[in-house]
Amino acid sequence: MADKSPPPTNTPPSDFERQAEEASPGLIAEFIDFLKNSKKWWLTPIIFVLLLIGALVFLFGSVAAPFIYPLF
To answer: Rounded distance, CA 50 to CA 63, Å?
Structure first.
């Protein structure tokens, strides 16, 4: 049985194809790009506070907890 795929063409790749082949940016770079393009700078303090709370929860539940409790 013969392969019925279309013959290859020498057309230049579209913008969509070029972007698909590029390396994807990291999470932080993508978030900063989102903030720049959508003008949602008010999200920055919310994300910062959530990360700070997450770090405190992690530290208070870890081996470092006995050293952190006297600080409060």
So the answer is: 22
- Please state, in angstroms and rounded to a whole number, the distance separating the CA atoms of residues 54 and 48: 10
Mean pLDDT of 46-55: 90
Of 71, 41, 42, 40, the closest CA to residue 56 belongs to: 71
The more confidently predicted of residues 62 and 27 is: 27
Task: Supply the pLDDT for residue 51.
Answer: 92
Instruction: Tell me if 20 sits within 8 A of 11, measured CB to CB.
Output: no
The rounded distance, in Å, linking the Cα atoms of 25 and 29 is: 6
Whether the CB-CB separation of 12 and 21 falls below 8 Å is answered with no
* Tokens encoding 62: 């870890």
In this structure, the dihedral spanned by the alpha carbons of residues 9, 15, 17 and 18, taken in order and rounded to 10 degrees, is 110
